[in-house]
Design brief:
This protein is α/β, with parallel strands linked by helices. The chain is built from nine helices and ten strands. Helix content is 28%, strand content 21%. The protein starts with 18 loop residues before the first strand and ends in a 6-residue tail after the last helix. Bound molecules: adenosine-5'-triphosphate. Keywords: ATP-binding, Nucleotide-binding.
């Protein structure tokens, strides 16, 4: 077991410099259930932040607050340096916050192009099918997506390819932040690799990515920072490279209580020089086997 991460300063009260999106003090209750209590979260442009936590930790609720599904009871959301409200999914979309929920919301009988443009068909005098096809091919090429044919019905695609189509569709709205709800859940090894590659492409495009995941190997493979929620509260923000899977699991399960703010030592395109905190553990090699037994991740109330 790796040593407990050294607690440093409490999570900052104000939006982190360079953050594209900052949540501060977000609370949300459902009746007597406090799903979120005073939660902070930051994501910068070109950064992947993994949001992890045990079942019922509040991850989905936080994502729903950000995507305009649930209004928060308290707290602030700052987007591109101004405080915003996200009263509806349409408002989130308008701001530039896209969410790909686990159900993906694809139409099985429609092909890839039709799914990509569902609800936002390009129209001149009539449906511009040529333009939609060209745009679809271009977008999927930019994402290095392995889709056999844009004319194939979505029903014929693998889980990884469907995830790719759902992510590509959300990019047509030109978002600045994209939230992925367990994008690799139930995928095999090759398909998971495909989706993780796609997330790298999103980072390269300068998007801020928030990824919910229960899989520590995926988190460590793709995230810059890892924000841990426990029982609806922050339990540390970790540098993904410098923190072992065991340390993350300890924070998730409550074996350690952390209010740790370690900024990523990976490149942050939005500026900011080297972080003095980044020295600690910066040369640590990831553990040889980062795959964490799912049993360690799923114990708890399991009521969801
Ligand atoms: N619509 C709702 N009505 C009542 N309680 C809710 C609602 N949504 C979430 N909760 C409760 O809020 C708490 C946080 O749930 P949430 O779904 O956000 O956790 P989670 O971290 O996403 O869990 P999981 O990994 O199992 O999806 C849980 O106790 C859950 O039962």
């Amino acid at each position: 077991m790796s040593p407990t991460p050294t607690p440093t300063a409490p999570a900052p009260a104000a939006a982190e410099d360079g953050a594209l999106l900052s949540l501060r003090g977000i609370s949300k209750s459902f009746g007597a259930v406090a799903a979120l209590t005073g939660v902070d979260l930051d994501v910068a442009a070109g950064e992947v932040v993994a949001l992890v936590g045990d079942n019922g930790a509040g991850k989905s609720t936080l994502v729903k607050v950000l995507s305009g599904v649930h209004p928060p009871d308290a707290g602030t959301i700052t987007f591109e340096s101004r405080e915003v409200a996200v009263p509806s999914p349409a408002a989130a979309q308008q701001l530039g916050i896209a969410t790909v929920f686990q159900d993906l919301a694809l139409c099985e009988n429609l092909n890839v192009i039709e799914n990509l443009f569902l609800g936002r068909e390009l129209r001149a005098l009539r449906l511009d099918e040529v333009a939609m096809e060209v745009r679809s091919r271009e977008l999927l090429r930019q994402l290095s997506a392995k889709i056999p044919s844009v004319e194939a019905p979505v029903a014929a695609l693998s889980g990884g390819q469907r995830q790719t189509v759902a992510i590509a569709r959300s990019l047509l709205g030109d978002p600045k932040v994209i939230i992925l709800d367990e994008p690799t859940a139930a995928l095999g090894v090759a398909q998971t690799a495909e989706v993780l590659n796609l997330i790298e492409r999103l980072r390269e495009r300068g998007l801020g990515v928030i990824m919910i995941s229960h899989n520590m190997a995926d988190v460590k493979a793709v995230a810059d920072r890892v924000a841990v929620l426990r029982l609806g509260r922050n339990n540390g923000v970790f540098d993904a490279e410098a923190t072992s899977a065991e340390e993350l699991v300890a924070a998730i399960t409550g074996a350690t209580d952390n209010v740790v703010s370690r900024r990523s030592r990976r490149a942050r395109p939005s500026g900011g020089g080297p972080d003095p905190e980044d020295g600690a553990g910066a040369d640590a090699e990831p553990a040889a086997d980062e795959q964490v037994p799912t049993t360690a991740m799923t114990k708890g109330d399991g009521d969801e």
